[in-house]
Amino acid sequence: MTTLFRRYERPGAARDPRALDAVFESKTFPLVDGTSVTFAFRGPADEVRLRHWIHGLASSKPFRRLHGTDVWYLELELPERSRLEYKLEVVRGGQRQLVQDPLNPNMTHDPFGVNSVVHGTGYEVPDWTKVDPEAREGEIVEREIRSDAFGETRSFQVYLPARMRETRLYPLLVAHDGADYLRFSGLKTVLDNLIHRLEIPPLIVALTESPDRLREYGNDPRHADFLVEELVPDLEAAYPISTEPADRGLLGASLGAVAALSTAWRHPGFFHNLLLQSGSFAFTDIGELDGGPAMDRVAEFVNEFREDPGRPAERLFVSCGTYEALIYYNRSMIPLLQSTGMAVRYVEARDGHNWENWRDRLREGLSWLFPGPLWMVYE
Amino acid sequence: MSIRVVLLGPQRLAPTLVDAVDSLGIDGPIASITAGWEEREGEDRELEEHLRGRVVNLRVYGRAEEIYEADPELRRALLQRHETIRKLRDLYRLRLAHALDAARQLLRRDCPEGEESILEPERAAAIEAVRDLDAHHRERVREVHAAFEAGWRPEERDDVARHREEIAQALKDTAALGVAGGHVNILLNRMRLLGLPGLAAKRPIVAWSAGAMVLGEQVVLFHDSPPQGAGNAEVLEPGLGLFRGVIPLPHARRRLRLDDAMRVELFARRFSPDLCVPMDEGARLDWNGKKWTAHDGTRLLTEDGAVAEEWAA
Q1: Can you identify the CATH homologous superfamily of domain A127-369?
Q2: Which of A166, A167, A378, A379 to mutate to test the interface with B (most CBs of B within 10 A)?
Q3: Contacting residues of A for B184, CB less than 8 Å apart
C-alpha cells in the first residue's frame, strides 16, 4: 500500500505547500504502486468522492482531506491487470458535480460520456487495438434493408475486408450495437489488425443497430427472424459470403449478447459461432427479478433457456468482467452451456461492464471462433 | 553451373528484390512464382513495376487449378495425400507439445552452481527428443510423398506433363526465378506438382518469405505468440531441397520473442546445425551451392540464446 500522503498525516508533520507542489509535479496520478492505487485531487472542495462501477465495492468512496491543505486523496487496492473506470464527485457549496479526474489524462468513452480510467500494474492497452500503418484497411459501407419482421426499413453498416474478392467466400459475423463497437471498441481497427496479422481470416461483419434495443434485444422473435430470414440472405446476395453455418457468427455485449443467444436459440444451427460478452443473462431460481419490464423479459428467456437450452450453436466464446454485477449470471451459465455439447470457452478479466473490456477480449474470441491462416501464411 | 540462391526479407513495404537481381548481374526476363498468393497470383503489378517490367509469371497456382479441373482422379489422390499428412501432423503435434514442454521446463530451471553436469545432459537429451520427433515426422511425410509419386507418377499424366513442358519453355527465355511468399503449403505443393525443383535449379533464384521457406530441406512453421495455443514451432514437411543449412524465419521480429533467451536457445539448438536466420525487412542471405554469405543487418539465432548481429556461416 502506498504511503505517499500518510507521512503528512503524522502529528507535527510539516505540510509545506511547496513540498506538496513538488509531490504533484513529480508524480503522476492516480499513482499505481504494485496492487495499490492512490487517487488525488487538489482544489477547493467540501467533499470529494470516487464514483466507479466495480461490483462488490461501495460505488462511492470518500477521499480523505490532508488536514490544513487543499489536497484530497484515496488509497484503494487494485489487483494486477485491472482496469477501473471512474469519475470524481466534487462537492462545493452544496453543489455536486461529476467530473473526469483532472490529474489523469487517460480517458475512455462510452455511450454515456467520458470516464477517467486507471490501469493496474501489468495491464497494457493491447497493441492490436491501435492503428497499425502496415495493416491494410477494410471499408465501412452503409446499407439499408426493408424488414418485414419489423415493418420498416433498417439501416446498418457493413465492414468489408481489404482486398475483398468476388471469387472467394467470406465468413460472416453479425454484430449487435455495431456502431458502438466501432466507436468505443475500435472494432474496425481491431479487424484490420487481426486480419493483417493472419489471426483471423478476412471476414465480412454486419454492424447492426436497434432503435429499441431494450425490447428487440430481449428475446424478441422479430429480431431473430430479421437476422436469419432477412439480413443474412440480403448480405449473401450482395457480397461473396459463405452459406455454411460454420462460417457464420453472432457478436453481442450486454443485452446484445442476450440477443445473440436468443437468436441462435430460436434458429438452432444457423449460426455456429457465438461471441457473447458480459451477457445480461439474468435469471431467477425463485420469484421475480424486479429489474423492470425489459429485464423481466430477459429473465423469462434465460429461465426458459435454462430449462431447455437445446444446441443453438457449435462454438461459444463467453467473457465477463469480474468487476461486473453480471459475473454471477455469466459464471452460472457456463456449466449449462457446456452440458449441451457445444464447445465453450469462457474467460474473465479484471474489468467492468464497458466497451474497452469488450474490445480487449475480441482478439481471443474472434481468433478462437474464426481461426486465421497464421501458421501457414508468410507474406 | 552451380546453384545460386538469394533469400530476402519480406518485400511488401521495403522491396530489395531489384537490388538483389542487379547484384547478380541479371538483366534478362525474370520468371516469377506467386502461387502463395493463391487466387491473387496474377495481381503482380507491383512486382512487375519493381522489376522494371521484366516479369514472366509462371502461373503455378492457376496451372494447378487447371490440372485439378481436368484430372479429377489425380485431384482426389492429392486430397487423400493431404488428408493423410494432416492426420500425421495432428499426431506429431500431440507428441511435440509434451516434448517441447519438457525441454522448456528444463531450460528455464535454475542451475545451482556446480550442478551443470547434472542438469545440462538432461537439457540436451530433452532437446534431442524434440529433434528425433521432428526427424521422425519429416520422414513419415517424406514416405507419403514418395509413395504418392511412385503410385501416381504425376509427371506422366497428360495435363501435368503439358503444364510442366509449358513452364520449361517459359523458363528458357528467363535469366532468373523469383519466388514470392504467401501460403507456404499451397506454394510448396504446387511447385512440387509442377516439377519446379528440377526445372528451377538451372538458374539463379531469388526468394522471400514463404518462397524462401519452401526451397530448403525442411519447412518450419513458427509463431511464439499466437492468439490460440502454445506457439510450438513445427516441421511442416521436407522442402524442395534447393539449398541446405538454413531455416529462414520471415517476419521474425513480429512472430518470435527474440528477447526471450530460452526460446531463442531452444530454437537454435533444436535445428542445429542448420542456421536459424530471422528474415526481416532488409535481410539477405546468398547461397552458392556450398556456402552462405550473410549481408549486413542479417541476424542469427544462437545456441546461447542471443540474436547475433554479426556472424559468418
Answers
A1: Alpha/Beta hydrolase fold, catalytic domain (3.40.50.1820)
A2: A378
A3: 376-378
CATH number, residue B219: 3.40.50.880
User: Is residue B246 included in any domain, yes or no?
Assistant: yes
Q: Which fold has domain A6-119?
A: Immunoglobulin-like (2.60.40)
Contacts of A365 in chain B (CB under 8 A): none
Find the largest Cα–Cα distance for chain B.
Answer: 68
Task: Give the Cα separation of A298 and A278 in Å (integer).
Answer: 14
Question: Chain A: nearest CA to B180, how far in angstroms?
Answer: 8
Tens of pLDDT, residues A167-192:
899 999 999 999 999 999 999 999 99
Nearest-CA distance B208 → chain A (Å): 8
Residue A183 burial (CB count, 10 A)? 15
- Please report the sign of the dihedral spanned by the C-alpha atoms of residue B248, residue B251, residue B253, residue B259: negative
CB contact under 8 Å between B184 and A378, yes or no, is: yes
Please give the Cα distance from A339 to A320 (Å, whole number): 20
pLDDT digits (tens, 9 = 90+) for B25-65: 998 999 999 999 999 999 999 999 999 999 999 999 999 99
- The rounded distance, in Å, linking the Cα atoms of A118 and B214 is 48
For residue B118, being part of any structural domain is answered with yes
Please count the CA atoms within 13 angstroms of the CA of B26 that sit on its side-chain side: 27
Does the distance separating the beta carbons of A378 and B181 come in below 8 Å? yes
Q: Cβ separation of A377 and B12 shorter than 8 Å?
A: no
Pick among B41, B183, B228 to test the A interface (most A CBs inside 10 A): B228
- A199 at the B interface (CB within 8 A)? yes
Q: Provide the domain count of chain B.
A: 1
ipTM of the modeled complex? 0.96
Chain B touched by A165 (CB under 8 Å) = yes
